[in-house]
Amino acid sequence: MSSNDQGNKNLYALALGAIGVVYGDIGTSPLYTLKEAFGPHGVAVSHDNVLGVLSLIFWSLIVVVSLKYATFIMSADNKGEGGIMALTTLAHRGVRSSARARWVIMVLGLFGAALFFGDSVITPAMSVLSAVEGLKVATPALGRYVVPIAVLVLFALFALQRSGTARVARVFAPIMVIWFLALAVLGIIKIAQAPQVLEALNPYYAVEFFLENGRLGFFALASVILALTGAEALYADMGHFGKRPIRRAWFAFVLPALMLNYLGQGALLLEDPQAAANPFYLLAPPVLLYPMIALATLAAVIASQAVISGAFSVTRQAIQLGYLPRMEVVHTSRETMGQIYLPWLNRVLLVLTVAVVIGFHSSTNLAAAYGIAVIGTMTIDSVLVMIVARRIWGWKRWQVGALGGLFLVVDLAFLGANLEKVEHGGWFPLVLGLVVFTVMTTWRRGRELVIRELKQAGLALKPFIESIAEHPPLRVPGQAVFLTAQPDAVPHALLHNLKHNKVLHEQNIVLTVEWLETPTAEPEERIELVALGHEFHQLTLRYGFAEDPDVPDMLAKCEKVGLTFDMMDTTFFLSRESIVATDNRGMAKWRDKLFAFMQRNALPATAFFQIPGNRLIELGTQVEI
C-alpha cells in the first residue's frame, strides 16, 4: 500500500472516529430544537414561521459551525491542540507587551473554560432526557419512568469513560453513522411529501420571520441556538482527532444529514401543526418508534462523550498552565497523546449531571440553562480568535473587523435572546461557571502568593554556593535532586537537609520544571543545564501544556548535555508547603482557606512527576498567606 493510500485510510478512520465522538452533541440537537422553538413558550406554528425558523437554523449552521468553527477557529490550533485554554494561550502570546490586555484575556479565557465545564454537565442531562422522553410519545403512561431511566443511562455513560476515547469511538462510530443515516432518511421521506419546505434555505424567510414576529421572533433565537450545541466540541476535541478528519466528517456527512432531518420535521409541521409537541419522534413511522427511542438514547450517550472528552482536555491544559491543582491523568491510548481520562473529574461530572436531571426533571425545563452555557463560550471564542488573527496571524484591522464583527453580531444576538431565560434556569450554568472560575483564579493567585512568601524567606543560590565552598560541610556519596519552582533561590529542602542532617551530597542538582504555552516542547528546549560550580548544577526541564511530565525519563536523557544520572544512587528532595490562612494582604481569608484545601487534596508532586517513592525525601515547610 502506498503512503498516499495509507494516509487516506488513516484520514477516513479518524473521520469515522470523529463522527462517533465529536458530533454526538450537535447530532442529537434535532431531538429538541424544533420542539422548543414551537413549544408552549415558542412561536405559533404557521407556514411562514416554520420556514423562518428552518432558515435561521440553516444559516446559523453555515455561519457559526461551518464558517466560524470548522473553517476559522480550528485554524487557531496550538500545535494541533484546540479548546478554549489553547486559544487563550495563543491570544496571550500575542499581547505580551500589555499587562492589562494579558489580564483581560486571562479572565475571558478562564470564564469561557468555566462555562465549558457547565456545558459538560448540562449536555449529558439534556441529550439523555430528550431521548428518553420519546417514551412519553410512544406510551404516555411511561412518562414517570423517564427520569429514573435517564439516571441509569448516565451512570453507564460515565462508567464507560475509563475505557478511553479511542475505544469509545470504535464502539460509537458505527452507531452514530446509523443515527445520521436515520436522520437523513426520515427527513428525505417527509421532504418528498412537502417539497415546498426547501424554500427555507432562502435567507429571505429568516429576515421575514424577524419582521413579522418582532420581539417574539428575536427571542426565538434562544431555541435556534439549541441547533448549534456541540459546535465548540469541534475545536475542543481537535487534539483527539485532528482538524482534517473533523472538517471532512462535518461537510461531507454530518451537516447534510442534520439539515435533511430539520427540513423533514418542518415538512411534518406544515402538514400537521399538532406535531409540534415532539416533531422528531412523530416524524418516525409508529412501527419504528421504539427502535428510534433506543437509537436516540445511544446517540444521546454519544453526544455527551464529545463534551466529556473535551472537559478532560481543557482540565489537563488548565492544570499544566497553573490554573487548577494537580490531579490524576490516565492515558487511554498509546498512539494518541490527547486521549486521556481524569477519574476525579469524571466523578464530579457524574454527580452534577445526575443532580441536574433530578432537579430540572425535563428537557424543556433544562433548555434555558443549555443555551446560556453554549453561547457564553461561543462569544468568548469569537473575541479571543479575533485577537489571534490580529496579533499572531497579522491580519489587517478591516479583515478582523469584517469577519470577527459578523461572528460577534451573531453571538451577541443569540446571547441577548437567552438573557430572558436566566431566571428560568439560565442562572445554573452562570453560577456553576462562577464557581469554577473562582476555583481557578484562587488556585493561580494562591500559588503566586506562596512563591512570593518563599522568595522573601529564601536565600540567593549563587552566594549560598560560594559560602558553602568557604565552609564546606560533610559530603556524602551520591546525587541529590532538589525540586523547586525558584531556580535562582536555595531550595527549602536543601536548607532543611543541611540544617538537620549536617551533610551535602557529592553532587547537587537544583531542578525546575517549566510549562510552556505550547502543547509540546521542542527537543532543543526540553533540557537546559547550567553548571554553578562546586558540584552544583541548575537543571531546567520544559514540557508543553498537553504533555505529562516524566522526570526520571527526562533525567536519563541528560547525558547528552553532560550530566549522567544513576537512579539507584540518586535521592530526590521535595519541600511540601503547609498553607496557613491569615489576614495578610493577598486574598480574602475564605479564598486562603479554599486554596489550602485544594493544596492538601492535590495529587502529590512526586506522583505527578512520576518520581519513585523509594528515592524520595519530603521535608515540610509552613507558609502563611
Structure keywords:
625 residues; alpha/beta; six-stranded mixed β-sheet; two-stranded antiparallel ribbon; 10% strand; elongated
Characterize the structure shown.
The protein has 625 residues and is of the alpha/beta class. Helices cover 62% and strands 10% of the residues. It is built from 25 helices and eight strands. Helix 1 packs across helix 9 (165-193), helix 6 (99-132) crosses helix 17 (343-360) and helix 8 packs antiparallel against helix 17. It is elongated, with a radius of gyration of 27 Å. It starts with a helix and ends with a strand. The model has no long low-confidence stretch (mean pLDDT 86).
Provide a concise account of the structure shown.
The protein is 62% helix and 10% strand. The protein has 25 helices and eight strands.
Averaged pLDDT: 86
Radius of gyration: 27 Å
**Coarse morphology:** elongated
Biggest sheet, strands in spatial order?
5-6-4-3-7-8
Alpha carbon gap, first and last residue? 63 Å
Class by alpha and beta content: alpha/beta
Largest sheet, in brief, is: 6 strands, mixed
Q: Total strand count, please?
A: 8
Give the fraction of residues assigned to helices: 55-70%
Note the total helix count: 25
How are the SSEs placed, and which strands pair?
Layout: H1 3-21, H2 24-27, H3 33-37, H4 47-72, H5 84-93, H6 99-132, H7 134-138, H8 146-160, H9 165-193, H10 204-219, H11 221-224, H12 231-236, H13 238-241, H14 243-271, H15 279-283, H16 289-320, E1 330-331, E2 340-341, H17 343-360, H18 363-391, H19 397-419, H20 427-457, H21 461-470, E3 474-483, H22 492-501, E4 503-515, E5 527-533, E6 536-543, H23 551-556, E7 570-580, H24 589-601, H25 605-608, E8 616-624
Parallel strand pairs: 3-4, 3-7, 4-6, 7-8
Antiparallel strand pairs: 1-2, 5-6
Helix pairs in contact: 1-9, 1-14, 4-10, 4-14, 5-6, 5-18, 6-8, 6-16, 6-17, 6-18, 6-20, 8-17, 9-14, 9-16, 18-19, 18-20, 20-24
